[in-house]
Design brief:
about 240 residues, mainly beta, Immunoglobulin-like, 5-stranded mixed beta sheet, 20 strands
């Protein structure tokens, strides 16, 4: 695992383990897999490149769909529990999300954060990049030389789309919530969200190409709700 992904995973684990029900340790979890079950397996969008080809290469993908090698798990889907009453939560501590411009792509491609967290943009390439955030608040971070690192505070909830103004295929997504009950699916499409107050909620799943799913869930103290979310086709 690269240092960038290691740092991201450790930060995500810190947010998850800090989430508790106010005044009680009686919490539950939800775990599952996001899968593509359609007969025709879609591939990522591919483009030819003429910008900095000596560094970036001559072809890239948008990484708009990445499936488990030899399997059906969908990577980079964003999963979140919705409908938890605010008075049942403790304010989650802010974290750090590192978005690395490396090999002319953003790493990670998708991430989650809590309000007040810091987004750190890093340029690991010997060419100019920008980390341009669109969404609840627009901000454009210029990273002119290799090694440049710039921070911005994520103070509004919602889904941020990140693009590079120089290399148009580069894109990433960060979902910001007022709670830590969210996750990004891993290599096999799996996810786990724990520390959830017991109750009936909605599990929302969002993927940039496959679209959105909503599934009702019931979280019980000391138990894990397990489910699979299936997509049969990309959004039209």
């Amino acid at each position: 695992m690269s240092p960038t992904l290691t740092r991201f995973v450790l930060t995500a684990l810190a947010w998850t383990t800090s989430a508790t029900l106010a005044g009680s340790q009686n919490v539950g979890a939800v775990s599952g897999t996001v899968r593509f079950t359609g007969a025709s397996v879609p591939g990522p969008t591919r483009i030819s490149n003429t910008t900095d080809p000596q560094v970036c290469g001559q072809e890239h993908t948008l990484e708009d769909i990445v499936l488990e090698p030899g399997g059906s798990g969908v990577r980079y889907a964003i999963v979140a529990v919705e409908g938890i009453p605010k008075d049942r939560l403790q304010p989650p501590p802010p974290g750090v999300v590192l978005i690395d411009n490396t090999s002319c792509r953003f790493a990670p491609h998708a991430a989650v954060a809590t309000i007040g967290s810091t987004l750190e943009a890093l340029n690991s390439d010997p060419v100019l990049h920008t980390t341009h955030l669109y969404g609840p608040r627009e901000t454009n971070i210029s990273l002119p030389v290799q090694g440049t690192r710039v921070s911005r505070r994520l103070d509004r909830p919602g889904l941020y789309v990140i693009k590079c103004d120089v290399h148009g295929w580069m894109q990433a997504f960060v979902r910001v919530d007022a709670h830590p009950f969210h996750a990004v699916t891993g290599d096999n499409g799996g996810f786990t969200i724990d520390g959830i107050p017991p109750g009936q909620y909605v599990l929302s799943v969002w993927h940039e190409k496959l679209g959105r799913r909503e599934v009702p869930i019931r979280v019980e103290a000391g138990a894990t709700e397990r489910l699979d979310i299936d997509y049969a086709a990309p959004e039209p």
